[in-house]
What we know:
mainly alpha
Amino acid sequence: MLQTAVFHFIALFVILDPVGTAAIFAGLTRGTSEKHRHTMALRGVAIAGVMLLLFAFAGDFLLRALGIGLPAFRIAGGILLFLLAIDMLFAHRLGFQNLTEAESKEADKAHDISVFPLAIPLIAGPGGLTTMVLLMGRAGGAWQAELLLVGVLAIVLGLTLVLLFAAARVVSVLGEIGVNVVTRVLGILLAALAAQYVLDGLNAGVNLG
C-alpha cells in the first residue's frame, strides 16, 4: 500500500508540476493584492480538484461509451505524457503546459485567473486528466485503492496550494534557473513514467489477445 501511495504521489506531483505552476502564477498575478492572489489560488485548486476527480471516476464510463479499451488508452496516454516530458526537458513549446500567445493576452486582461488558465489547463491539464484515468484504472475497482488515490491527490493539491500562496517567494528563492532545473528533473521522471504506461498497455493488450 505504501509503495502504491508513493507511486501515485510521484506521478501526480510530476504531472501537476506545482513548482512550475507557481512560477507561472506569480507572473500572471504580479501587481495584484495578496488577498486576491490567495482567493484565486484557492478557487483554482478547488476547481482543478473537481475536474481531476470527475475524470478519475467518470473516465472509465467515457472510454466504454466511446468503445476504447483501457490498454489502448494507456498506450495513448503514455505517448501524450512522453510528449509532455519532452516539453519539460527541452523547453519545446508543444502547448501542454505553456500558454499560447492568445491565452497569455487573455490571462493578462482577466481580473480573475482562477478558472482559466490556473485551474484549466495549468493544474488540470491534459496530462493530469489522463493520469487520473490511468491511475484509477490501476485500482481495478477496489475501493481501498481508489480512496488511496483520492487521498494522495488531495495531498498533492494541498502542496500545490501552499506553493501558489508562496509563489512570489518560491520564484525569488529558486530563480528562473532553479525553476527550470526542477522542471527538467521532473521531466526525466515523467518520461520514465510514460514509458511504463506504454509497456503496461502493450502487456495488457497481449494478455487480452
